[in-house]
Amino acid sequence: MDNGGIFLRVADITAVLDTVLTTMRAVGADITYRLGGTSAALLQGVQLPVGDIDLLAARREDVDKFCSALASFPCLHTASWLPESSQYFARYEVHRVKVEISIVEREVDSDGMECVGRGPWQHYVWIACGSHQVPAVRLELRLATELVRDRADRYEPLLDHMSAQGCDFDLLHQAMRNRGLSPERQRVVWDRLGYSARTL
Questions:
Q1: How many Cα atoms are found within 13 Å in the side-chain-facing hemisphere of 96?
Q2: What is the pLDDT of residues 109-163, one digit of tens each?
Q3: Starting from the edge strand earliest in sequence, which strands make up the sheet with 33-36, in order?
Q4: d(CA 46, CA 34)
Q5: I need a labelling partner for 110 at 20 to 30 A (CA). Which of 23, 120, 128, 141 fits?
Q6: pLDDT digits (tens, 9 = 90+) for 18-62
Q7: Domain coordinates in residue numbering, the chain
Q8: d(CA 91, CA 31)
């Protein structure tokens, strides 16, 4: 989803997350979550278009706690099961920004995917947002997602950033393999990152 064609800035995301987490803390709503999607990438320094904020929950009850805590904000989508995407999903509006939270209930024996399996829970970084520390899914997992979706306006900035700043090549290799990217597509990525010596 997007935010009506208006792209968010780092300051927007930080302010909204600070509001959300402060609201949750005030009512004792302690949940296990990760920040994912393009907003997680922007907070890690990647300049790319961001339309909303995506939170991944560990359990359905975390989604429900989130919804209860944010009851004073406009609810755009009541927490419910979406069978087409195997998601328990809710959406709120905070300071005119769409904030989504969901759990993807699909069994995957992998730690190389962004929204399912062990990946988001094992591979993340902490980012300061106001008075809070937010766990954001690592860029390697996001890049694999955007490559699968073939969204050049997202994966090109990720590749530019990782080419300049470096990345975890083993994790990226695992993520691309788990997402089923062809060896040819993977070689293009390695060449772009200056790591063409990897054996595929």
A1: 6
A2: 888 889 999 999 999 999 999 899 999 999 999 999 999 999 999 999 999 999 9
A3: 75-82, 87-94, 97-104, 53-57, 33-36, 132-137, 124-129
A4: 18
A5: 128
A6: 999 999 999 999 999 999 999 999 999 999 999 999 999 999 999
A7: 10-192
A8: 16
Rg of the chain (C-alpha set): 17
For residue 162, report the phi and psi dihedrals to the nearest 5 degrees.
-70, -30
77 phi, psi to nearest 5 deg:
-155, 110
CA distance 39 to 10: 8
Task: Identify the pLDDT of residue 200.
Answer: 47
Report CA torsion sign: 35, 56, 47, 97. Answer: negative
Give percent above pLDDT 90 in the chain. Answer: 87
Cα torsion 48, 54, 55, 58: sign: negative
Q: Would you say domain 10-192 falls under CATH 3.30.420.10? A: no
DSSP secondary structure code for residue 104 in this structure: E
What is the spatial distance between Cα 13 and Cα 17, in angstroms, rounded to a whole number?
Answer: 6
pTM of the model: 0.91
